[in-house]
């Protein structure tokens, strides 16, 4: 297959529409009406999503209160020094108070420190009389109806939820109306022993800035004692304050969005499904039927579960929808590739705003509920895109390309593709064990330079390869891997907005940084491919 010498000199050599006979199937008037209804509903939902997102951004800008808690174990009477270091509270075990081994609470409070109570075992509800205890942690076999726990929460105590802890009890309490909760982060002594002092300080900053942590469960740094520990606490809190946070008090809970906006967002999700299906299944009545069933089924689903279903559908459908809209417009050349990358990313950002609005409920923002299906949402859009692309090519052209290829290089390429795709799936989610030391250092450097670190699977992989695909480089069949990894980058953008505990403005900045870097690297990759093609034609003209 020959390629044009210049750019944009002929239409794309790959996908062809299935012909006028296939495009004309079905009722054109009905299809047009469905398109209009779907487009109007989707536009209305995006408008509602922007309203919700603006409210969420306003709350996130106000949610600047931070509390710092240190354990009372090992402390004697350094209460005033801790308060001077801007520590908010000390944590005391209920078992210690019950056995008469706790610190002098009146003296602690007199120094300016609050007391956080750790429920490490069932205890008498009379311990609440020793309060107030503004913060309460559950770290033992305490039932959801424990009298002491219920009494503390009724009195206005805030439930502290450490990251990665069991949240079943907290979810039951949340459903029962106890919604005064705060997410906390702590670094275990084992983890601190593996980190430098600067790395520990950076980790605290990252937890506050990127993951919505508002309670710091501090403990002494390795090998540090006395005044050194106080200096460490002071440094942690000073750096947090330098980011614009207030140490010493908590901010109000996030507001709940109205039910009517929730219905509008659900209808927008159904409209997105309808429009995507109309493109994927041309001339079929199935899209309208499926979208109608989904819209009705949503009325019977529980609120948070419906939001999770809608969020998953948005994360899967948006990259496929953008691809189907842009595929007929693919041409040869850098401009075509850049256009596909930019417009696809714009569609992903719009979908991300819809996704962020769906997850703007307080339960998601404090991570008592979360987005489900991270790996599936990362894998389904690339697979669907490749299948639809191969359908456009048609079996005769696929067969011709396979017969013309050499078996060994083809098999090696297929194996490499499967390994890379599998590694990407394994890397999605919380997989710190697969993060290399060099990569961690690179992350830190990017954070220091760009504030919001772009994702590697976007700017190093997905965006450059999507530009190469959109630029029409390579034989048709062998562009499918380019499309696969290109759509991985678009799915990653949606995944960024699925982290409801991350500030929305930070997600937008991260996506913009990734797009800018990906466009630069994609342009360099495109230029390299052009040079390689020219060299190949010169030295092997046949």
List the SSEs and their pairings.
Blueprint: H1 20-23, H2 28-62, E1 65-71, H3 79-84, E2 89-93, H4 94-98, H5 105-110, E3 114-119, E4 135-138, H6 147-154, E5 158-162, H7 168-175, E6 181-186, H8 189-193, H9 197-211, E7 215-217, H10 227-242, E8 246-247, H11 259-280, H12 286-297, H13 303-326, H14 334-358, H15 362-365, H16 374-393, H17 395-404, H18 407-427, H19 437-450, H20 456-470, H21 480-497, H22 504-539
Parallel strand pairs: 1-2, 1-7, 1-8, 2-3, 3-4, 4-5, 5-6, 6-7
Helix pairs in contact: 2-11, 2-14, 9-10, 11-12, 11-13, 13-14, 13-16, 13-21, 14-20, 14-21, 14-22, 16-21, 20-21, 20-22
Describe it.
This protein folds into 2 domains: 20-60 and 256-539, no CATH class; 65-247, TIM Barrel (Alpha-Beta Barrel). It is 61% helix and 7% strand. It contains 22 helices and 8 strands. The chain has helices at residues 20-23, 28-62, 79-84, 94-98, 105-110, 147-154, 168-175, 189-193, 197-211, 227-242, 259-280, 286-297, 303-326, 334-358, 362-365, 374-393, 395-404, 407-427, 437-450, 456-470, 480-497, 504-539; strands spanning 65-71, 89-93, 114-119, 135-138, 158-162, 181-186, 215-217, 246-247. It has a 7-stranded parallel barrel with strand order 1-2-3-4-5-6-7. α13 (303-326) runs antiparallel to α14 (334-358) and α20 packs across α21. The N and C termini lie close together (12 Å). The model is unreliable at 1-14 and 16-24 (pLDDT under 50).
């Amino acid at each position: 297959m020959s390629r044009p010498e210049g750019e944009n000199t002929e239409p794309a050599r790959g996908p062809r529409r299935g012909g006028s006979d296939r495009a004309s199937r079905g009722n054109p008037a009905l299809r047009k009406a469905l398109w209009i209804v779907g487009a109007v509903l989707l536009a209305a939902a995006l408008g509602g999503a922007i309203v919700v997102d603006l409210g969420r951004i306003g709350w996130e800008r106000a949610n600047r209160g931070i509390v710092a808690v240190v354990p009372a174990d090992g402390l004697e009477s350094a209460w005033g020094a801790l308060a001077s270091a801007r520590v908010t509270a000390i944590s005391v075990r209920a078992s210690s108070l019950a056995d008469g081994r706790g610190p002098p609470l009146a003296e602690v409070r007199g120094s300016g420190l609050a007391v956080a109570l750790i429920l490490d075992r069932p205890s008498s509800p009379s311990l609440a009389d020793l309060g107030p205890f503004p913060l309460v942690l559950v770290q033992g076999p305490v039932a959801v109806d424990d009298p002491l726990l219920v009494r503390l929460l009724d009195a206005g105590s805030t439930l502290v939820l450490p990251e990665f802890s069991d949240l079943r009890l907290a979810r039951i309490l949340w459903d029962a109306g106890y919604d005064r909760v705060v997410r906390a982060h702590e670094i275990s002594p084992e983890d601190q022993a593996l980190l430098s002092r600067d790395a520990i300080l950076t980790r605290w900053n990252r937890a506050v800035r990127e993951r919505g942590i508002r309670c710091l469960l501090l403990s002494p740094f390795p090998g540090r004692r006395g005044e050194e520990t106080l200096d460490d606490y002071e440094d942690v809190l000073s750096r947090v304050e330098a980011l614009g946070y207030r140490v010493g008090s908590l901010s109000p809970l996030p507001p709940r969005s109205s039910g009517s906006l929730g219905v509008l967002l659900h209808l927008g999700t159904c409209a997105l499904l309808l429009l995507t299906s109309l493109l994927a299944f041309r001339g079929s009545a199935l899209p309208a039927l499926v979208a109608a069933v989904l819209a009705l089924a949503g009325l019977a689903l529980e609120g948070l579960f419906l939001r999770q279903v809608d969020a998953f559908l948005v994360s899967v459908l948006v990259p496929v929808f953008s691809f189907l809209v842009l595929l007929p417009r693919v041409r040869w050349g850098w401009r075509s590739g850049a256009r596909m990358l930019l417009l696809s990313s714009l569609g992903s950002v719009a979908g991300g705003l819809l996704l962020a609005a769906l997850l703007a409920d307080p339960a998601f923002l404090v991570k008592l509920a979360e987005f489900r299906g991270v790996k599936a949402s990362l894998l389904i859009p690339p697979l669907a895109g490749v299948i639809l692309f191969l359908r456009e090519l048609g079996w005769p052209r696929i067969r011709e390309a396979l017969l013309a290829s050499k078996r060994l290089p083809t098999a090696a390429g297929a194996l490499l593709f499967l390994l890379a795709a599998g590694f990407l799936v394994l890397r999605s989610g919380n997989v710190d064990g697969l993060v290399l030391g060099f990569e961690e250092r690179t992350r830190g450097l990017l954070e220091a330079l760009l504030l919001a670190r772009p994702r590697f699977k976007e700017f190093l992989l997905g965006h450059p390869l999507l530009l190469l695909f959109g630029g029409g480089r390579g034989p048709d069949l062998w562009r499918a891997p380019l499309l696969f990894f290109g759509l991985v980058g678009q799915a990653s953008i949606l995944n960024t907005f699925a982290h409801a505990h991350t500030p929305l403005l930070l997600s937008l900045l991260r996506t913009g940084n990734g797009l800018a870097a990906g466009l630069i690297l994609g342009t360099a990759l495109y230029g390299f491919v052009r040079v390689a093609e020219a060299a190949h034609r010169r030295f092997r003209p046949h």
